[in-house]
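Fold these two proteins, one after the other.
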Amino acid sequence: MKKPRYDINIKNFLPHREPMLLATITPYIDEVSVVTHFKISDDCIFLDNEGRLSEAGLIENAAQASSAIVGQSYFDDDDLEGTGNKLVGYISAIKKAEVFILPEINDLLITKAKLISRFDTGTMSICTITSSTFRNDDLIVDCNFNFLIHEVQ
């Protein structure tokens, strides 16, 4: 069983880079859950015409946070730089996506995700993850995803 990790740089474990990186700080991650932070900047490509983070941006934020739970298992415990492996993840289904509020520039999003189920086939994992995104203490997004995550040679 992997030990929980604190304050890791999640971009080392995601294939996303600016401007697509929408989960930037990870105060906590373990084998079945994760918490990420993302502060919305004025140069975010997912802003709508009114300066709010769009539905697509909110879902992408939730997906990036969620996929980190299973993705981290492909890395050694002492690999905090994410150099030991290359992964690709796909959203195979968005089972639920409820958006209650579109947050604005400078809002801090806190996304919490939890692993519901997982099936491994060696170099590939199929999983279901639920996530909730908050602005302050307000729930603004509630999602449920299926992912396919696999190693790339």
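Now the second one:
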Amino acid sequence: MASLTSSLAPSLALGFGQLFDGAVLRILLKSIAVTLVAFIIVAAAGWYLLDWLLARGGLEDGMFEGAGAIRELLSLMLALLGLWLVWRVVAMGVVQFFADDVVAAVERRHYPGEASVARELSFGEQAGNAARAAGRNLLANMIAAPIALILLFTGVGTFAVFWLVNALLVGRELQDMVWLRHRQNKAALSPVGPGERFMLGGLIAAMLAVPFVNFLAPVLGAASATHLVHRSNRKMIAA
């Protein structure tokens, strides 16, 4: 555990400090703006879709007095619940499009040698990575949902299930944002160990569940992952 935290803690500290650099701060503000727009679009679409489904299911205004108001309130509650579940998918999906810029900004300042040999990902490759990550996220969370519902009575079991699943997913996503720029071939393994990857993913996944903090979490994760990958790689080479 000590070796894991000794590698992760400096990476997180450096990543947090980088948030206030001009280049990363501009990316952070852009990612927040795009995330909010995407969030509003998803919220509105989900609300109207649920309202339409409930109306088609028979909960119409003519069913009984006040049915329309109940349907709208129920639609809103279900939409908010759904948004809480997919917030991480939306936020991480958005930051995927800015990840290359975040990683490049960190590398230019702290790892110029590695930056000079990095492979620039095309827009198509970034979009493909984002789509695959979003697909994994949705599938994994849909599989976890029944287990989370069963544990709902425990109070913390539901959160623990989603946190565990998303810690694994987020850790992999953050690692790939950096490692895909530098691996020599598709078979090359990341220098970041599974324990470090899980701990970074777990911390960022927890931050994504906290209002307002969740706006910072994806960019902080990308910056911290950059330090973690390169610091781990240098240790591996030195050994």
